[in-house]
Amino acid sequence: MGNMRPIRAGQELVQLTGTSAKDGPPAELIFGDWYPALRASSLKRKDTAVTTLLGIPMLLGRKSDGALFAMRDLCPHRGIPLSAGWFDGETVQCKYHGWRFEPCSGQCQEIPSLTSHDSLEPTKIYANSFPVVERDGYAWVYVPEAGAGRVTEEATLPPVPELPKFGSRFRSAHLQAELPCNVDHGIIGLMDPAHGPFVHRAWWWRSAASIHEKTKKFEPIEDLEHDGFNAGFRMSPHAPSSNSAPYRLLGRPVTMIDFVLPNRRYETILAENARGKKRWFSSLTTVTPVTASTCRIDVIAAWDIAYHVPFVTPIARYFGAKFVQQDQQTMIEQARGLRSNPGLMLIDDADKPAKWYFALKQRRLKGIGEHPLSEPVELHWRS
């Protein structure tokens, strides 16, 4: 492989956001769960921002008291985007007719055109609003099923995802990239164990010559508390790959990787150096559907390794960004092929996690079926 040269494909711009005739095939989306909308730090008091989640245009903001809100970017009166209007830190006012809404509840506070002759009570009208929680620097928004009605009691919702932490003193970093593919392709790319030596080939990570056979054990994760709502599977605790240079710096690390529905990959690394000092690293990676045919990857990581060493965070962010950019570039190139909606194949054992994901997703969408991983198994592949 050392003599192989890259094929020079024609240069082509690939649209990363929105939908068009050139987008790849859409995916069925999972509603009724929490998704990271944007970095909460980007919202100062009295600030707003617009984004899209699961095809829904959203207006997010932070009130004068610091509370976050998320609304459908749509006035229920005539359908104009609320983002075209005004926000004073307390209420959102529509540009078209001046209807004013309390953004956390969506309750209408004022309809300026009403007179003493009208019997309509504005407070009985609600714009669509969504539960939103700030966690690990993200604004997590709960997106209900269509027709589910207003969520009035957040205690009934599943827990908000959170990055695992193993101490109070740590450094952290986050990364983000938009992908021109549907969420299914983004997720199976995220969990794919065989692409590393090819997509992430670099002196500081892996090389083509580093490929060797691997054996990993997997076990089911069954979300019994919520009837399998956020079920998934786990790569059991193991020593990380010896052909990944950064892992060798940690001493004697043990890593565990969890994937849980609808879109979350947790990785934790617990290590002990030659002096017996314990260290840790953890990450939470999500692939969030922006539309039915585009998605976005977010990574939040924390660690106490080299806590006092200057420049560790920017260095980690630099190499992490390179890693994510390699995945992004591969997805951009894959998008050209997916536009024709070709038939695809999944093979054993390397693609077994992808098969489990599709089975778990259908199980959740339909509300019936057994976990595809009935007991712990051992998988083998070369990477």
Automatic annotation (TrEMBL):
Annotated protein name in UniProt: Rieske (2Fe-2S) iron-sulfur domain protein
Keyword presence, Iron: yes
Domain of life where this protein originates: Bacteria
Organism: Granulicella mallensis (strain ATCC BAA-1857 / DSM 23137 / MP5ACTX8)
InterPro entries recorded: Cholesterol_7-desaturase (IPR050584), Rieske_2Fe-2S (IPR017941), Rieske_2Fe-2S_sf (IPR036922)
Residue ranges of domain Rieske in the record: 34-141
CDD domains: Rieske_RO_Alpha_N
Keywords: 2Fe-2S, Iron, Iron-sulfur, Metal-binding, Oxidoreductase
GO molecular function, one term: oxidoreductase activity
UniProt-listed Pfam families: Rieske
